[in-house]
Amino acid sequence: LGTTALFHAVTLKSANATRCLLSAGAWITEGSCGETELHEAAANNQLEILKVFLEDKRITPEYINKKDKCGRTPAYRAAYCGFKDCLKLLIVNGADMGSITTTKDSVLDIIFSRVDQPVKFLKEILDCGITKDKEDKITLDFGILCRSGNDSQTSVVYNILNAAHQNENTELLEHPLVETFLRLKWKKVKWFFYLLIFMYTMFVLTLSVYVLLVMDNVRRFRTVTRIARYNLIILAGGLLTHG
Hints:
GO terms for molecular function: transmembrane transporter activity. Keywords: ANK repeat, Glycoprotein, Ion channel, Ion transport, Membrane, Repeat, Sensory transduction, Transmembrane, Transmembrane helix, Transport. With 243 residues, this protein is mostly helical. The chain has helices spanning 5-11, 15-23, 37-43, 47-55, 61-64, 74-81, 84-92, 107-114, 118-127, 150-163, 166-173, 176-216, 222-242; strands spanning 130-132, 138-140. The chain has 2 domains: 5-174, Ankyrin repeat-containing domain (Serine Threonine Protein Phosphatase 5, Tetratricopeptide repeat); 195-242. A two-stranded antiparallel ribbon has the order 1-2. Helix 6 runs parallel beside helix 8 (107-114). It is elongated, with a radius of gyration of 26 Å.
């Protein structure tokens, strides 16, 4: 990286030259450390150049979330430098807030540690995931939380809880997008939650009965004792599997 005309156009901060080169067929290249022109533009607060790349029909989420050898994406570079406009543009166009570097830092972690007023910024990002059409139909895009899938989206929400200060947690969790996401998640997993409560309750009751029968050594209840023992084994196995 650094020998192409496109790279020089980006480093010289020329959006017009970048647009002309892309129109002529030039495209994103990868340097020795895995960085691309998008990394360079994001790290130097080149909003217009990023817009030029994102308007190109060849751009895909793979390019937007391309990692260098340290696992840093263009969004990570923008967040680390505190360039909120570039970061917002990248996230809205598919950058992954849950992307993790080789040092286990996510883009979201860097937002909280390096971006000015991170909670306000995240609320603006979340607002972009809510749209309303002419018929007043509201559409929620949970992909704005994380582009990697449902598990990663849940991880991002969990990281919001951990990374924000306690008085800011509620503010973010009360955002309609996050609140709806958590509500839908709860509808999917609540049966499993209730099942666990039932299993723990049965385990405690069965264990109590079994201990009482064994301690009293009541022979006439040997069948009940045996049944209780088998139930304990089954319940313990199920709970251990979950753990």
